[in-house]
Amino acid sequence: MDQIKVELIPSDYSKEDNTLNVEKVISAAGHYAGVCYEEEGLNKLLKEDPEKTEKRAMRALKQCHHSVFGHTHITLNIENIPKILAMILNNEKEYNTSEKSARYTPVVRTDNSIITKTEEELYNKWMDIFTDKIIEEYPDSFTSFKIKTLSQENARYLVTTFMPTKMVYTTSIRQINYIVSWMFKYINENGYKDEFNNKLCDSMMDFIFELERLHIVIDGLLTNDKNRSLSLFGKDLDKKEIHYGDNYSILYKASFASVAQANRHRSISYQIEMVNENNKEYFVPPILEDNDSLVNEWLTDMEKVKDVIPQGELVKVYECDSFDNLISKAKERLCTHAQLEIMRQTRKTLEEYYNNLSPNCSLTKEDIKKYLKGARCTFSDYNCNSD
To answer: Which CATH architecture has domain 237-275+313-378?
Structure first.
């Protein structure tokens, strides 16, 4: 199985061996902690006795005044991280990430890979089918490179959501330690009760081990006194309120692949919950919908890989935030350059928003009309620089 590998990108807070310089992190936090009462400000604090600085930092750590550790950011180069674990990281709000796109990543099974032979065979089979369908239906619309990337993007629905990927991830020392504490909580509460959680908890432990190897895990930041949890996973989502007003909340089903796109919109809150184990559902790429035979073949092949939890498996998604943030999302996703599934869902959410607004929200209802004409290039307040 592909092993997660984490490297600390060199910075002011790394040692020559590219592990975290914890002493510098503590010192920085101690200086920042003194700003609130030092009349002469940070410059004086930088010249004080290092022992005094350390004591102040440790006192802040003990009293859970962790914000002073949020000033120190680190950048991680992460290889072989399962897609679902990348989704967990990306659903938390405080980060920047650059991740390898499935559009440009062919699925190639290697020795000891988590990718099964069946996944590889089905992926290649449907790559050919999608390529032929795109050429047939859009003979003059796409370059050969674009056809290949679109085919890869659709065929990957048959591949496990634990497919290894690569990402560069930047966040604060405070946040990465909080995430570790939430992972420990998830493992304790949900670990090893089914195949999905078996793999997920193992992946979390591998990731935590790598962070510990790099000296990134700091015990005093793992307290989790507020009993917070990983934000991606919800419970009893069917019982959540559906609401449309100045703010909104909505429940729908989407594939893991679509959720991975959605949770990159950090202003919007997403929670997911698995559908009943005995009643799995799968996303069907729209280009297949006019051919019942291909649809049935697609669903049959999905069933062949159901045990690996394919990216095309549908999950319940609870999405909520403000109207303004939804419009911001629409300005990214209502575009042919976006993944088709999330583009369609964003469009559907806007339409449902408009149709379900109460008469008391007349201004919002009038405003939303501007975004129902079509793609983002039709928005009066969006300047598109693409062809």
So the answer is: 2-Layer Sandwich (3.30)
Long-range contacts of 243-246 (CB under 8 A, 24+ apart): 243/320, 244/352, 244/353, 244/356, 244/357, 244/358, 244/361, 245/323, 245/357, 245/358, 245/360, 245/361, 245/364, 246/322, 246/323, 246/361, 246/364
Does the domain made of 5-99+163-221 have the CATH classification 2.30.29? no
**pTM score above 0.85:** yes
Amino acid code (one letter) for 271 = Q
Residue spans in the chain of domains classed CATH 3.30.1360.170: 237-275+313-378
The 3-state DSSP class for residue 194 equals: coil
Label residue 374 left, alpha or beta by phi (over 0 means left) and psi (-120 to 50 means alpha).
Answer: left
What is the sign of the dihedral through the CA atoms of 381, 320, 176 and 190? negative
Q: Are strands 164-172 and 73-82 parallel, antiparallel or unpaired?
A: antiparallel
What does each of the 387 residues of the chain score in pLDDT, given as a tens digit? 579 999 999 999 999 999 999 999 999 999 999 998 877 889 889 999 999 999 999 999 999 999 999 999 999 999 999 999 999 999 998 899 999 887 777 888 887 889 999 999 999 999 999 999 999 999 999 999 999 999 999 999 999 999 999 999 999 999 999 999 999 999 999 877 888 999 999 999 999 999 999 999 999 999 899 999 999 999 999 999 999 988 999 999 999 999 999 988 888 999 999 998 788 999 999 999 999 999 999 999 999 999 999 999 999 999 999 999 999 999 999 998 899 999 999 999 999 999 998 777 777 888 898 899 999 999 999 998 876
Residues 6 or more apart whose CB falls under 8 angstroms from that of 172 comprise 69, 70, 71, 72, 73, 74, 94
Neighbours of 187 (CB within 10 A): 17
* DSSP structure string for 208-259: HHHHHHTT---GGG---TT----TTB-S-GGGSPPEESSEEEEEEEEEHHHH
